[in-house]
Amino acid sequence: MIGLNDSTSSGLRTTHSIRIDHKQSYMPPSRRPDVSTVRSPPRRSLTYDDLQISEQIGGGGHATVYKAHVSGPEPPSTVAVKEPTHETETLPAAAAKEFIREAETWEQLDSRERDKQLWTEYEHLVGVVATGDDLPWIAMEYMNSGSLADRLTSRGSQFSIPELRWVADCICRGIELAHYEGISHLDLKPGNILFRETADDSWDVAKIADWGTSSRPLETTDEAGLSAAFAAPEQFNPDQYGEPDSMTDVYQVGAIIYTMAVGDPPFSGSRIEISQAVTSGPVPPSERRNELPPELDRVIERAMAPDKQDRYRTIRDLASAVADVPEPRSTADGGSQTQAATQPRSPAESPASPVGSGGPPSAGDTARSMATEGMGTDAEVERGDSPIPTSVGTVGLPPCKPPIEVIKDGQEYLLREYHRNPSQATVFDSYDRRMTAMRAASNKLTTEHHPCTLRWDTPNSVGEIYWNEHFEELRVEYSSFLDAWLVLPREAKFAFASAPNVKRAYKYGKRIQQEYDFQELKVCSRRGKVEKVVEHRFIRHSLTKSGVKFNRDSA
Asked: What is the rounded CA–CA span in Å between residue 271 and residue 237?
């Protein structure tokens, strides 16, 4: 079904609005499961006496995990129970406090995922069923398909690229939710990635467990529980590389992806040997598994960069880059031996500017004609005098609202509109704690259609930018059905504008990106290949990089 406004265009707001229902029959069968089938079990009001411990299923560090059956008719009937471990019968107060802190953090993140206000397709945190305080314990979702560490050991081989992309996407989604709450995991490793079994031939769903090492902004961390093989340079030497934070999670996810691709961790040896090796980065994955594409090497190089400012800015950027890694060059993993060698790499996929994150383009990039820069010769298609299809219905354009920001003002945190002149910004509310303000910002982001939230760490620097998923990507694509170039959001439910050639569509796209504050504008060739990525001005100005001061006049 296609709805098209048959009135004549007279500016950006009155360009054609097109609704498209894509047919998926041409797509190859996917092994990606429906994550709604592995939702976390419901919360229950339980005491420790309701848990019938049957066997130990995990342990290490300061905790032990058991499988337990739960009495009563309500689900779940089986849970995993985590308890602190100590050599003496009496648990020290400090250890009990730390375990309770983990339970509270885990429960907070699980509650956020269950709310589904922003995370409608996210089921990638192991669910919390109940917790105990007096004798601390956590009853959590029973993950019936083992850990990533188990799979790496039992299969004795590497993951295929499609399955690697799926597991990496699961992990990134779970970490993205935590980062939105201002929480970093800091101990991501294969043993903390657990799986729920799915039906048929679908891949199992990965979920993240164990938040005992996690921290919030401005909290200090120590080396207790540090997993050296997956630790980032800043966890060995914070004086040189800075305190562990969300960029540490980006590094550790990169290390997990490396391990899935190669079959072994990026570094091995003693703690001292690893602490020295991480400062120069790992051996490229393709040097340890020949058929791996160079695109994966570049993803790993950036994700595991020793300096935090050289890594992907957000975990979502890393996920986007991994999603663009092509099939292996060897037919052993279902890829083509000639694919990597015969397909030209677009400017958007260069090492300095991978699709989904990218380095900031130069000032001239946004001004040069798309007919001569960054686009193939097949992209310029004139439609001539072909008639516009008859109108069969219209859809309205979505609301257009400014970004919002959370910034400290004295002893309070303000939630307000982003404005170049702060005195003219509308203040929605004020809060005693930044976490509370960020939760309110999250709700406003989705319910009122704001494009993004800026989280300020100091009066002059932005620590993070959180994007509304509906404003993450705007695309310029060719429609053979309409014989026209369309400007449309990623969901492709409607089009903002249509044009007879890519040059004009790109011009529309730039205006729409600026007016609606889309995170990225991706311009595709006629065959659908991404040829250029234009990032939002906030990203081009590197607002979230360490040491970069915020200039409202230029941003």
From this structure: 12
Q: Which residues contact 492 (CB under 8 A, 6 or more apart)?
A: 20, 22, 475
- The pair of structure tokens assigned to 272 is 């001292």
> Six-digit token pair at 65?
């995990």
Instruction: Give the model's pLDDT for residue 333.
Output: 38
Give the neighbor-by-neighbor strand order of the sheet with 63-70: 51-60, 63-70, 78-84, 137-141, 128-132
Task: Give the C-alpha separation, 427 to 436, whole Å.
Answer: 15
Q: Strand, coil or helix: what is 205?
A: strand
Bridge partners, residue 3, by sequence: 19
CB 124 within 8 A of CB 148: no
The alpha carbons of the chain give a radius of gyration, in whole angstroms, of 25
Q: Which amino acid is at 164?
A: L
Q: In what order do the strands lie in the sheet with 497-499?
A: 497-499, 484-489, 473-479, 520-524, 530-535
Of the candidates 162, 145, 165, 138, the one whose C-alpha atom is nearest the C-alpha of residue 46 is 138
Place of tokens 């993205």: 176
Q: Token pair for residue 457? A: 């760490």
First to last CA, the chain: 40
Amino acid at 549: K
Fold entry, domain 46-141? Phosphorylase Kinase; domain 1 (3.30.200)
Q: State both tokens at 389.
A: 């299809």
3 state SS of 178: helix
Q: How wide is the angle at C-alpha 180 spanned by C-alphas 426 and 414, nearest 5°?
A: 25
Whole-angstrom distance, CA of residue 427 vs CA of residue 76: 44
Instruction: Tell me the CATH number of domain 148-329, given options 1.10.287.1080, 1.10.510.10, 3.10.100.10, 3.40.190.10.
Output: 1.10.510.10
CB atoms within 10 A of CB 536: 24
> What is the helix (H) or strand (E) element at residue 386, kind and residue range?
none
For the chain, the 3-state helix, strand and coil shares in percent, each to the nearest 5, are 30, 20, 45
pLDDT number for residue 103: 75
For residue 282, give the amino acid letter.
P
Strands 484-489 and 473-479: antiparallel
User: Does residue 244 sit in helix, strand or coil?
Assistant: coil
State pLDDT tens for residues 124-133.
Answer: 899 888 888 7
Q: Which residues contact 384 (CB under 8 A, 6 or more apart)?
A: 500
3-state secondary structure of 98: helix
Segments making up each domain of the chain, as ranges: 46-141, 148-329, 380-385+395-555
Query: What is the mean pLDDT for each group of 10 consecutive residues in the chain (555 residues)?
Result: 34 39 40 83 87 85 85 88 72 70 75 62 85 82 92 83 94 89 88 90 90 51 66 92 91 97 93 93 93 94 93 91 81 38 33 32 34 36 39 54 91 91 90 87 86 86 84 91 89 82 92 91 89 84 54 56
Q: Map 337-369 to HEC letters.
A: CCHHHHCCCCHHHECCECCCCCCCCCCCCCCCC
- As a whole number of angstroms, the distance between CA 532 and CA 519 comes to 14
Q: Encode burial over 435-462: b for 16+ CB neighbours within 10 A, e otherwise.
A: bebbbbbbebbeeeebbbbbbbbeeeeb
